[in-house]
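User: Protein folding is very new to me. Would you mind checking the protein record under this note? It all follows right here:
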Amino acid sequence: MNKFYHSIYLNGKLCKGCYNCIKRCPTEAIRVHNGKAIIIKEFCTDCGECIRQCPYHAKLARRDTLDVLEKFEYTVALPTPTLYAQFNNLTDVNIVLSALKQMGFDDVFEVAGAAEIISEESRRYVQENEAKWPIISNACPAVERLIRVRFPNLLENLLPIIPPMELAAKLARQKALKETGLDSEKIGIIHISPCPAKITFPLSPLGITRSEIDASLSVKDIYPVLLSHMKHAENHIENLACAGKIGLGWELNGGEAAGIFTENYLAADGIENCIRVLEDLEDQKFNANLEFIELNACNAGCAGGVLNVENPYVAKTKLKQLKKYMPVSISHQSDYTCLKKDDLYFTEPIQFEPVYQLGSNISENMESLNAMEKLLKTLPGMDCGSCGAPTCRAFAEDVIRLNAKEYDCIYRLKDHYDQYKNENSNENNKIKKGDSL
């Protein structure tokens, strides 16, 4: 399995090499060479910021199409609460869940229902592991991948519990196996994702060896098809919901922390804000009583995913209104007798991946770092992006890694040209002076 797989890719025919993406990528994973953007897969966390910022729609996310429904004898949809927030005047989530069945799915299982079970176990884990405070949520795969490559000292703070989407897939498969008697490979568990990072997770999971999710559809792809079934679903509603306020709240910034029932938490959204929080945590700037940190790469939480339809802040308001009259919680760990405590936890540790290091060992790294700092002093420090890198420091690192040449910097090239012209002029003057003598 490719540990650096990412679902975001570039359509070279649409790319204009405009430098917008290299300036907005929070992990400096994009370069522009020969007039086209290049994504460095080791640096990319699939946060989707480049998709959001590209004016030419050249950044896209790989995902499955609705044809995937034909590949299995029995299919189960895993809708996230964000899906509900795409529709106007929705008063009952069962309308959306019923419409999913009418459009071709055999069953549905709410990711929000699994989130309530995860909240239960997370509360227990946080209370029993004070030595690891603050515990960092792993619900956002983009943040999880960011910590893996950039903040190795914080890996032990990660909550070692599988994300709700994975638990939902596991419970949905167990239910389908029991009800249908089919072999597991004939059952398709299909996640409906609001972002590229959650499409990447099943294909390159962290903390587990293999995901139970068989395919991923995007909210924006399923929305128009689902919309056509909504009217009929209103008149033929099935009671399929298995989540209350806590489960739906996970999609909003601070919702996961609210499900843990603690006031000593920090919640941040937007990948740049997440990076700032992680840097401050490494520098030990937070109070020792801080119990839990919830981080979402998208602004407004999962409601701000780039594969949604609705404006993230409108969607956020819709979700708040929708869960207003819901019960606090519906799903509980005790409701699933087939579920063991070990089913909720990571089966393997998440390892640090030193993709940003300049050498293979400490000696090489220090030597390369010194060479990079020396080169950096000769650069203009304007971070103009004309070299194809987002900053002068990133460009200097590229040169040390042999991924760029020193004179790709137009200012270094100009200085070199001026020096050559002056030297050539002085040489010509000497020759002329010699001729005159």
